[in-house]
Amino acid sequence: MCLAASASFPPNSVKELIEYAKRNPGKLFYGTTGIGGAAHLAMEQITLLTGTKMEHVPFKEALL
């Protein structure tokens, strides 16, 4: 798993991301390859364990 963000995004660590998410509920979005995938479930677990609210944006899988 990998968690990545733009260099201009204020948090610089996972701890700072959680603090930022708590101060900005529902204003953060994260993308995954789809509903129910490993990345989606991992982020849902993070939100449940930390009491944060981040919105899921599922993307269609890329065709190779």
Given as residue ranges, the uncertain stretches (5+ residues, pLDDT < 50) are: none
Distance between the termini: 21 Å
Order of helices and strands: HEHE
Spatial strand order of the main sheet: 1-2
Oligomer: single chain
Describe this structure in words.
- This protein has 64 residues and is of the alpha+beta class.
- Helix content is 36%, strand content 16%.
- The protein is built from two helices and two strands.
- It has helices at 14-23, 38-50; strands at 28-32, 54-58.
- A two-stranded parallel sheet has the order 1-2.
- The longest helix is centred in the last third of the chain and has 13 residues, at 38-50.
Which short descriptors sum up this protein?
two-stranded parallel sheet, 2 helices, 36% helix
Outline:
With 64 residues, this protein is an alpha+beta fold.
Fold topology:
Layout: H1 14-23, E1 28-32, H2 38-50, E2 54-58
Parallel strand pairs: 1-2
